[in-house]
Amino acid sequence: MDPGGGCPHADNARLLAAGAAVTPVVLPGEVAGMAVLGHDALREFLAHPDVAKGAEHFTALREGEIPDGWPLKTFATVQGMTTADDADHRRLRSLVSKAFTARRVEELRPRIETVTEQLLDALADAAAHGDGVADLRRHFALPLPMGVICELLGVDAEHQDRLHHLSNQIVATDIGPEEAMAANREMVAVLSAVAAGRMENPGDDLTSALIAAREEDGDRLSPQELLGTLMLMIIAGHETTLNLITNAVRALCGHREQLELVLAGKAGWGDAVEETLRWDSPVSYFPFRYPTRDLELAGTVIPKGTPVLAGYSAAGRDTASHGPDAARFDVTRGARGAGARHLSLGHGPHYCLGAPLARMEATIALERLFTRFPELDLAVPESELPRHASFVGNSVHRLPVRLSRAPKGRG
Questions:
Q1: Closest CA to 163 of 112, 83, 223, 233
Q2: Which pLDDT value is given to residue 408?
Q3: Which CATH architecture has domain 9-402?
Q4: What residues in the chain have per-residue pLDDT under 70?
Q5: CA torsion sign, 99 to 100 to 101 to 104?
Q6: Three-state SS for 408?
Q7: Can you tell me the distance from the alpha carbon of 176 to that of 144, in angstroms, rounded to the nearest whole number?
Q8: 349 phi, psi to nearest 5 deg
Q9: Is the sign of the CA dihedral 293, 294, 300, 305 positive or negative?
Q10: Which Pfam families does the record cross-reference, listed alphabetically (predicted)?
Q11: What are phi and psi of 268, to 5 degrees?
């Protein structure tokens, strides 16, 4: 795996064309692993009863072969829902799930719409001061989900920029041991301060609710699980949606005929979101799961205790499941019933808890953005956009756009 990240699609297509639904990979630090790339194989793997998330199943880690500062170690060792199994997983998930019920998510809609309009004003202002060009990722795609998840958690605005920077460091795969350890220490320090603030001044937020659950029943949520849950919520709660919005704007700008279909009402903004999730998944290869026994999958044996990456970006373009035109961006695909449903938000017991919120944020963001700026386009060629320095996140680091004509109202 290239620690510097880059666009995954060419390598994915080559491997899938060669029949490699499951393939060996070399992780940073020469750690042996596997990746599941095929849609059907990944769907089976994500829900397999003999596949675990707990780090105690990671053989090389358990035997002391993984050093401190390994760039992917946080994915394995952070204490929270993504590294818990069975009863522990159900316990942790139940504590958080109340904040993401359909009713609670729908109650957030007016706030998301208000924040979206404010950010569009800020985007227009940034473009006015930048010869008509502004970084859409910085001024719009980032502050929308970051602001929403921080409001849910009761995190003050003063922490948001730093938390985003630290999130980027934690998901990066190209940084050294000292940087990785420093980012984790600082993230824990910031979140500890957030938790301490909520203990002193509880509010109507998820952090306060988690603290109350711990105090009411001390064995339900340990201090480490509280901080681990906050870390996971911060990272997953904004990085995925940030990449989703960014990738959707890139896709629609690069396929103007598809954008015109949506603007003309021949497809919905939700269709554009779902097709982006399939075609350019916001997460490329997600760490880790571990077989609890030698496991044969798609004709390949994955040895017990191997760290396995979930290849969401590959599965989304697997022609065996999505048809011969899987590499084509088509917002009408879902309405036509073409191909399998994507797996980009997971499958099985660890299906993304925040999926309804991510879909709502992205749908509102795209509808308001392109209604207000229907001629918005990339200010540089796609090939010149700098990619994430990570094979986990799948997007670009900046998205300079030109707001081609003056706004005609806010739609």
A1: 233
A2: 47
A3: Orthogonal Bundle (1.10)
A4: 214-219, 338-339, 405-411
A5: positive
A6: coil
A7: 30
A8: -65, -20
A9: positive
A10: p450 (PF00067)
A11: -95, 165
Residue type, 195: A
- Segments in 129-222 forming alpha helices (H): 136, 143-153, 160-171, 177-200, 206-216
How confident is the model at residue 214, as a pLDDT?
A: 67
Global model pTM greater than 0.85: yes
pLDDT of residue 3: 86
Report the distance separating Cα 142 and Cα 279, nearest Å: 21
The tokens 């970084």 sit on which residue? 135
Cis amide prior to 329 (ω within 30 degrees): no
* Inter-residue contact 392 to 171 (CB < 8 Å): yes
Place of tokens 């796609």: 382
> Looking at residue 338, what is its pLDDT?
67
Residue from 309, 262, 305 nearest 288 by CA: 309
Residue 361's nearest CA partner among 128, 148, 189, 154 is 148
**DSSP 8-state symbol, 103:** H
Q: What are phi and psi of 296, to 5 degrees?
A: -90, 125
**Cα–Cα distance between 306 and 124 in angstroms, integer?**
49
Residue 400 belongs to what H/E stretch? Answer: strand 400-402
Let me know: does 303 contact 23? Beta carbons within 8 Å: no
- Domain layout of the chain by residue ranges: 9-402
Question: What pLDDT, in 10s, does the model give residues 34-45?
Answer: 999 999 999 999
Contact (Cβ atoms closer than 8 angstroms) between residue 261 and residue 251? no
Instruction: Give the residue carrying structure tokens 């191997």.
Output: 306
DSSP element (H, E) containing 32: strand 31-36
Phi-psi region for residue 299, left (φ > 0), alpha (ψ -120 to 50) or beta?
A: left
- Tokens at 373, concatenated: 């700026």
pLDDT digits (tens, 9 = 90+) for 331-371: 999 887 766 799 999 999 999 999 999 999 999 999 999 99
